[in-house]
Amino acid sequence: MVVGDFALELDTVVIGAGPGGYVAAIRASQMGQKVAIIEREYIGGVCLNVGCIPSKALISAGHKYQEALDSEIFGVTTEGVKLDFAKTQEWKNNGVVSKLTGGVKGLLKKNKVEVIEGEAFFVDEHTLRVINGEHAQTYSFNNAIVATGSRPIEIKGFKFGGRVIDSTGGLNLTEVPKKLVIVGGGVIGSELGGAYANLGADVTILEGSPQILPTFEKDMVKLVEKDFDKKGIKIVTKAMAKEAVDNGDSVTVTYEVDGKSETIDADYVMVTVGRRPNTDELGLEVAGVEMTERGLVKVDNQGRTNVKSIFAIGDITPGAALAHKASYEAKIAAEAIAGKPVAIDYIGMPAVAFTDPELATVGYTEKEAKEAGLDVKAIKFPLAGNGRALSLNQTEGFVRLVTTKEDNVLVGAQVAGVSASDIIAELGLAIEAGMNAEDIALTIHSHPSLSEAAMDAAEIALGLPIHA
User: Fold this and answer.
1) Which of 65, 311, 398, 458 lies at a 20 to 30 A Cα distance from 356?
2) Could you give the CA distance from residue 453 to residue 447 in angstroms, rounded to a whole number?
3) 235 a known binding residue?
4) Which helix (H) or strand (E) holds 24?
5) Which residues contact 229 (CB under 8 A, 6 or more apart)?
6) Beta bridge partners of 239
7) Three-state SS at 335
8) Contacts with 90 (C-beta within 8 Å, 6 or more apart), sequence order
9) pLDDT at site 1
């Protein structure tokens, strides 16, 4: 490529190659656009490299380790079980992450998307400049999709470095810490806390809210709290983290509960209190793009900003910071650019916590539905009544359906238990398609399967339960 001040022309340019960006680029190319994607760090973004995927790999490794230690109920006796964490990390990085990121690179090439390395800065609403070291190149575009993601929030008194780490540092430790303190008991903190406890760490979670996982309903969270208690994880709620002092070979964390100061020593403290949008060094304001005080980009129901030629998706827009949200918005934005009559609709979008047990929710909760003016009922089917859950020896949890009283239309669902992340997909589809409980109940589910719990829950909603 010629490097210089002559602008190279593109139909659509995508900034950021995470689960929002690479999907947007591929879909735009499928729509007949000449597309380039700009990435300053790594293809696949946070999710594939230092987020969703590697965290699930560590969670899986922790499960395998615990299964090896405790399989006597199945008649399996094991001796001398050891954890080689270096091998665990090697598998996570090379057996999982590298394969997926390599796959994304192949998909971009297959779809004729040009990959540009460097940092992008807007010059105006149709021009941007990409800088890579000492080299720079200007590009003109008809449309841009900004998908630059987010980064961990650093809080006062907890400057990242040494033994004060963010979630990325937590995923890349070279050894399992004997003691780990986690500041923030949301999804990331709870997932990694559970993973490291399964791998042998003594974990303490400090959460400012009255409960961990505050975005999930209390009866769901209680199941995770029960598991944490079994694992020996200490949960301190209504705790305000004040300071971390790196002692070289340890770290001392100070926090307050009810005005009383407490300290705890650990090998590491991991801060997982939220994420900040990566919008501060793009020159969006130069292009005239409007943002909120938090740096989130304001968009319409197609992902378009107030500047007609610039779209924004994923963590830099209002709403939950979820990879699947970014990918969904990516397709909408790319198709909107192509003139398709599309619009964003989040009603069928799930949220999941990969804890033990897994938690998943989609659509309305019962409380949310009633607040929205809907006349609904909520019913539960316990996994203890599901044959597959029994055969897996994982019976904690339930499937809950929220349906309208008049015609049993499904408006929400929550699943707590093994494979909740998979079960929720069927219920999301049902909500998206406007199905009622009878549609789910009359769908023949394979036996024995965890998915039968959705069918059994639907039969309860109809007043015709077989297994309850």
Assistant:
1) 458
2) 11
3) no
4) helix 21-30
5) none
6) 257
7) helix
8) none
9) 40
Residue 4: predicted pLDDT = 53
- Establish whether 259 is an annotated binding residue: no
Phi and psi at residue 182, to the nearest 5°? -115, 125
Residue 187 in marked binding region? yes
Strands 398-404 vs 376-382: parallel, antiparallel or unpaired: antiparallel
Q: Give the separation between CA 175 and CA 258, rounded to whole angstroms.
A: 34
Model confidence pLDDT, tens digit, residues 174-227: 999 999 999 999 999 999 999 999 999 999 999 999 999 999 999 999 999 999
Instruction: Quote the pLDDT of residue 147.
Output: 99
Which neighbouring-strand residues pair with 378?
Answer: 402
Q: Which neighbouring-strand residues pair with 263?
A: 254
Taking each helix axis as running N to C, give the angle between helix 187-198 and helix 218-231, from 0 to 180 degrees, rounded to the nearest 10: 30
Q: Is 362 annotated as a binding residue?
A: no
pLDDT greater than 90 at residue 274: yes
Is the pLDDT at 427 greater than 90, yes or no? Answer: yes
Half-sphere exposure (CA, 13 Å, Cβ side) for 415? 29
Distances, alpha carbon 465 to alpha carbons 80, 311, 461, in Å: 47, 48, 8
pLDDT at 11: 98
Q: What are phi and psi of 256, to 5 degrees?
A: -125, 140
Q: Show the tokens assigned to 95.
A: 């057996």
Report CA-CA distances (Å) from 38 to 15, 94, 117, 140, 147.
Answer: 5, 24, 6, 13, 10
Element (H, E) at 411: strand 410-416
Phi-psi region of 54 (alpha: psi -120 to 50; beta: other; left: phi over 0): alpha
207 annotated binding-site participant: yes
- Alpha carbon separation from 60 to 19, 36, 352 (Å, rounded): 22, 35, 16
pLDDT one-digit tens code per residue, 116-166? 999 999 999 999 999 999 999 999 999 999 999 999 999 999 999 999 999
Closest CA to 168 of 185, 148, 154: 154
Helix runs in 172-245, H state only: 187-198, 218-231
Longest CA pairwise span in the chain (Å): 72
Residues with a catalytic annotation lie at 447
Question: Which residues are paired to 75 by β-bridges?
Answer: none
Domains of the chain: 8-152+276-337 (3.50.50.60), 164-273 (3.50.50.60), 357-461 (3.30.390.30)
Cβ neighbours for 82, distance < 8 A, ≥ 6 positions apart:
none
Q: Does residue 40 contact residue 17 with C-beta atoms inside 8 Å?
A: no
